[in-house]
Design goal:
108 residues; two-stranded antiparallel ribbon; two-stranded antiparallel sheet
Length: 108
């Protein structure tokens, strides 16, 4: 395979990015969720359900019912935008899968 210039720095590389920028690219998109995230998510969902029931607060749509188990924990501010808030319980909320996918990394 012929070397091509890295899309970020121009260094010859075997792919679209040199090893340094490939690592940075992967770390932004493939950071695994750890045990702490799962525990915070479970507590956040349990607290929400206890107070509101199985209802999604919606993202750019109104509140709507979801089936039992239909809520996901989500970061209010994306962990990719603010890694320091990745495991901060105050940065967690709940949404259904569809609303969470619609929200993506948006903050609003």
């Amino acid at each position: 395979m012929a070397l091509r210039p890295c899309l970020v720095c121009g260094t010859p590389a075997n792919g679209s990015r040199c090893p340094v920028h490939k690592l940075r690219s992967d770390s932004r998109t493939k950071v695994p969720y750890g045990r702490e995230h799962k525990a915070i998510t479970a507590r956040t969902i349990a607290a929400w359900v206890q107070q509101h029931g199985w209802v999604c607060p919606g993202f750019r749509r109104g509140w709507h019912p979801v089936p039992v188990g239909g809520l996901e924990g989500e970061h209010i501010i994306s962990r990719h935008l603010r890694p320091d808030l990745a495991n901060d319980p105050s940065n967690y909320s709940v949404l259904c899968r569809r609303c969470n996918a619609r929200k993506g990394a948006r903050v609003d």
